[in-house]
Amino acid sequence: MLLPETDLKAILQAALQQGGDFAEIFLERRRTTSIGCEENKIERVTSGFDQGAGIRVIAGENTAYGYSNDLSRESLIETAILVGKAVQSQPRPREINFTRPKSRVKFTIKKRPDQVAVEEKVNLVRRANDAARAVDKRIAQVTVGYGDVIQEVTIANSDGTLVDDERVRCRLVVNAVATDGKHIQTGYESAGGHQGWELFESVNPEEMARLAARRAVMMLEARPAPAGKMPVVMAGEAGGTMIHEACGHGLEADLVQKQLSVYAGKKGQKVAADIVTVIDDATIPGKYGSYSFDDEGNPGQKTVLIENGVLKEYMYDYLTARKEGRRSTGNGRRESYQDRPIPRMTNTYIAPGKDDAAAILRDTKYGLLVKRMGGGQVNTTNGDFVFDVAEGYLIQDGQIGPAVRGATLTGNGPEVLRIIDRVAGDLGFSLGICGKDGQGVPVGDAQPTIRIPELVVGGILDEGDKE
To answer: Which Gene3D superfamilies match (predicted)?
Structure first.
């Protein structure tokens, strides 16, 4: 515990004596390591330490937030008094008796990253860099990034919640750039999780780097993507970027309550095909978006958002749940003690179906097979999206055809969910740092192989196609 219970009670009572009907303190101690390799050399090896506390006071519809990196009792009581005054409410002091909620999941860390020598971490990055560069002489640039974080938190509030937690995450990212003097293509691969150094018992850095490099070279040799409306098969290995961006954000309760979501007011209504179920789950062992407790002290949980096509639930933090007189879904997250919590996804995915991935491909005579998604843009108000395809292939007579480059997918998230006609039983995860309101948090997303009968595919005009 980062502070004694007596100090936590004193800080919370000081906040309530100045105003407000709810007070919370979030204490954090974070240790990080970051290693980067560019231009065939280690460019940076950095380690960091940060600690601090965020204090929040809520009175009705008003919220005040302040933070300090001084964890002394006196400093935090002073901060609590200032934050309490800011809500301009009648003081509501009361006795606070702490209880500790139980976690729904336990994370076993076999080897903490702070027990691994920096030299070993640097060697892992070098191995990945060398493996990517050895794939092909057309690999012009390789960047490799390694990072780990050990985050200790103590969360206490005036309702009596008291939680201690430790989050340990490791991540490796490889980006390869290939060029033939005329075209430039990239290949990207990443791995990570709520895990320690044991991540690399199941993830081979060299093979991961070779995969990224091969993807860049293959896209260099690919033909320009066709344009027009066509069936799109999204492989499980593509990850859940589309479900995260085109659907997930629209199911976060703050956007719903502000009427900035296409899903606002649609709970209980049909919003997707019968075969589509969407889940957000913080309790999956080892995944990048998993945790025992959210950043408000609520146990992480599995929440069915859409079940057999019907919208069942949104993702709530304390404040959005309070507005509706209900309980949080354990989705209150923040980047650090300097940030107030907001509703955020954890590991969001389309649940596996009963179909066979190979059969979906065989039954699609023509279209686009997406094996890796790139970046994109989404309008959460209406669900419109545009995504890049990082690795795609033509489907010809139910078989995987030639690779294509420059493809984009344009459509509307809710409409796509409604017309999905095949869902396979596989499930492939991807990971990333999700940004919202200036905060980034680790997330996972996934989907099985699915088929979208018709989607607008944007292609490119190759130099050789010009008349």
So the answer is: PmbA/TldD superfamily
Tell me how long the chain is: 467
Strand arrangement, sheet containing 184-193: 62-68, 41-59, 22-38, 139-157, 162-179, 184-193
Q: In this structure, are residues 407 and 459 in contact, taking their beta carbons and an 8 Å threshold?
A: yes
CA–CA distance, 419 with 453 (Å, rounded to integer): 7
122, β-bridge pairs: none
List % helix, strand, coil for the chain (3-state, nearest 5): 25, 40, 35
Q: Per DSSP, which regions of 319-419 are E strands?
A: 332-333, 342-343, 347-350, 366-378, 384-396, 399-405, 408-412
Q: Return the structure tokens found at 224.
A: 């320009």
Q: How many CB atoms lie under 10 A from the CB of residue 56?
A: 25
Residue 393's pLDDT is 97
- d(CA 371, CA 358) in angstroms, rounded, equals 14
Report which DSSP code applies to 247. Answer: I
Q: How far is CA 8 from CA 12, 78, 406, 426, in A?
A: 6, 13, 55, 46
Query: Sorting pLDDT into bands at 50, 70 and 90, what band is 460?
Result: low
Using the 8-state DSSP alphabet, how is residue 257 labeled?
A: H
C-beta neighbour count of 156 within 10 angstroms:
26
- The answer to whether the predicted template modeling score (pTM) of the entire model surpasses 0.70 is yes
- Rounded Cα distance between 72 and 53, Å, is 10
pLDDT tens, position by position, 64-91: 999 999 999 999 999 999 999 999 777 7
Question: Smallest Cα–Cα separation from 130: which of 138, 142, 118?
Answer: 142
Residues linked to residue 174 through DSSP beta bridges, in sequence order: 144, 189
Tokens of 328: 């949080």
- Taking 90 as the threshold, does the pLDDT of residue 175 lie above it? yes
With b meaning 16 or more CB within 10 Å and e meaning fewer, what string describes 197-231? bbbbeebebbebbbbbbbbbbbbbebbbbbeeebb
Contact 387/374 with Cβ under 8 angstroms?
A: yes
Give residue-wise pLDDT tens across range 192-243.
999 999 999 999 999 999 999 999 999 999 999 999 999 999 999 998 888 9
User: CA-CA distance, 433 to 444, in Å (whole number)?
Assistant: 9
CATH topology for the 5-221 domain? PmbA/TldD fold (3.30.2290)
Backbone angles phi, psi at 14, to 5 degrees: -65, -40
- With a CB cutoff of 8 Å and minimum separation 6, the contacts of 262 are 250, 380, 381, 382, 383, 413, 414
Q: Where are the domains of the chain?
A: 5-221, 224-465
Secondary structure class of 434 (helix, strand, coil): strand
CA distance 126 to 147: 14
d(CA 189, CA 132): 11
